[in-house]
Amino acid sequence: ERENTMFLCVRCQGIMREVCLSSDGEQFCSSCKKEGEQATPNLQMDRMILSFKCSCPLIARGCKWLGALGGCQDHLDTCGYVLEACTLRCGVVLQRDELRVHEK
Questions:
Q1: Are strands 39-41 and 27-29 parallel, antiparallel or unpaired?
Q2: What are the angstrom distances between the C-alpha of 71 and each of 25, 36, 65?
Q3: ∠ CA(48), CA(50), CA(55), 5° rounding?
Q4: E strands, 1-104, where?
Q5: What is the pTM of this model?
Q6: Which neighbouring-strand residues pair with 68?
Q7: Average pLDDT per run of 10 along the chain, which is 104 residues long?
């Protein structure tokens, strides 16, 4: 059971991001750190989590990207399956790749 939960934040229950370690050994996301709480970064755990393989969150729309979790945001910055509003202000919202054709 521990193997399935060791990468989850004990506070938000999501996969830990920017892992912090409290003096009593509790690990959690830096965003879950309480004001004034003393904790140190756990860079080793961060590196491990960021190296996990993952698919694009837009796989259901057809994206076939597979890479390290740490590179997912960079991928999403250019992923053709992200929805965007037309810059011509016509009100259309399309996938980024389709929008390029629409706006021509």
A1: unpaired
A2: 28, 31, 11
A3: 125
A4: 19-22, 27-29, 39-41, 53-55, 66-68, 83-85, 93-95
A5: 0.73
A6: 53
A7: 74 94 93 94 94 95 96 96 92 92 84
